[in-house]
Amino acid sequence: MRCTILGAGSWGTALGATLASKGFPVCLWDKDAPVLQAIAQKHENTRYLPGLALPPSLAAAPDMARALEGAELVVFAVPSQAVRQVAIEGKRLLHAGVPICSVAKGIEVDTLMTMSEVLEDVLPVPMHPYLTFLSGPSFAKEVAAGLPTAVTIAGRWERISKQVQDAFHTRTFRPYTSTDVVGVEVGGCVKNVIAIAAGLSDGMGFGANARAALITRGLAEIGRLAMRKGANPMTLSGLSGLGDLVLTCSSEQSRNHTVGFELGRGKKLEEIQRALGQVAEGVLNTRSTRDLARKLKVEMPISEMVYRVLYEGQAPRQAVGELMNREMKPEN
Ligand SMILES: NC(=O)C1=CN([C@@H]2O[C@H](COP(=O)(O)OP(=O)(O)OC[C@H]3O[C@@H](n4cnc5c(N)ncnc54)[C@H](O)[C@@H]3O)[C@@H](O)[C@H]2O)C=CC1
Ligand SMILES: O=C(CO)COP(=O)(O)O
């Protein structure tokens, strides 16, 4: 199966290496030419996964048309806010009948659309049944190192999700399928926001109790938004809900947790993002999640708290104080 990955950051590269390890010809494309050059010449993604030897069969092409030539599986692996632009660029080069797998975790800031809504907005209708969405607890570095990982691949047409599941399955990478596209998408997006909240809490020196409370109440608000969008509540206790939430809220490997942690220690957002040099989806996801929650009249107090810290300059300690002292209520 000839595979093309649009986006050669840490996740696109790790997934490309996974597919290449099965003997599939894989070509990566990105707007960052030096990254592609390093992959093609040194078999290393020197910027996003330095020190990791990539399979020599992993090719890279700066020309999207060349990268997509003969593709039998296309993976969208750019950050969520770039998916629309890449889909517009790729639209005339993509063919109906070829499975597409989107792996970005986010909601578009300007339109409040999930990635399935964005791709369906841009791509012609005959391509829609071929869209799938991969999400779940999966740090790129661990996947690239061949450490055991399980994810979910959601799609409306099970036959296609199964094809994509087969393509990605290796001895250490285990995808499950789901038909709950919106549940998987909302879980994958909002866990980034809650991970910033958990990082804030850790950065301020709050303990394990606070982190567990944020994970649990975070899951409750993810569930509320997902169900309002039509998701099956069971999806949120799966890999793309609870699984990814626990991973990102409790690991220093998480870029979103790092953003919260450094903010909690008093650093400025711009400074943190500059040092990170990679996308922390939760920063923009906080804006889109909070706006979507307000639009749909869904109560999401943790996401509101993160919004006030990121975008209104509220001091983290004051924001947590307000969160703790809202009106008393039953746990539901
Ligand atoms: N890194 C990880 O462990 C995981 C990441 N994800 C998700 O995958 C998505 C991508 O994340 P990463 O690979 O980690 O990001 P990254 O920051 O490592 O890399 C992003 C890549 O996208 C490219 N890019 C950005 N805008 C572009 C455009 N308009 N055209 C072409 N290329 C463009 C950049 O040049 C860069 O190579 C995010 O939504 C993230 O949440 C999901 C699971 C794991
Ligand atoms: O989505 C991820 C793991 O599942 C990656 O998390 P971060 O973007 O917070 O590093």
Question: What does this protein structure show overall?
Answer:
With 332 residues, the chain is α/β, with parallel strands linked by helices. Helix content is 51%, strand content 11%. It is built from 15 helices and eight strands. The chain has helices at 10-20, 33-42, 64-68, 80-90, 115-122, 140-144, 158-168, 181-203, 208-228, 239-250, 255-264, 269-276, 282-295, 301-311, 316-324; strands at 3-6, 26-29, 58-60, 73-76, 100-102, 131-135, 149-155, 173-178. An eight-stranded mixed sheet has the order 3-2-1-4-5-6-7-8, with helices on both faces. The protein binds 1,4-dihydronicotinamide adenine dinucleotide and 1,3-dihydroxyacetonephosphate. 1,4-dihydronicotinamide adenine dinucleotide binds at residues 7-12, 30-32, 35, 48, 77-80, 82, 85-86, 103-106, 138-140, 278-279, 281.
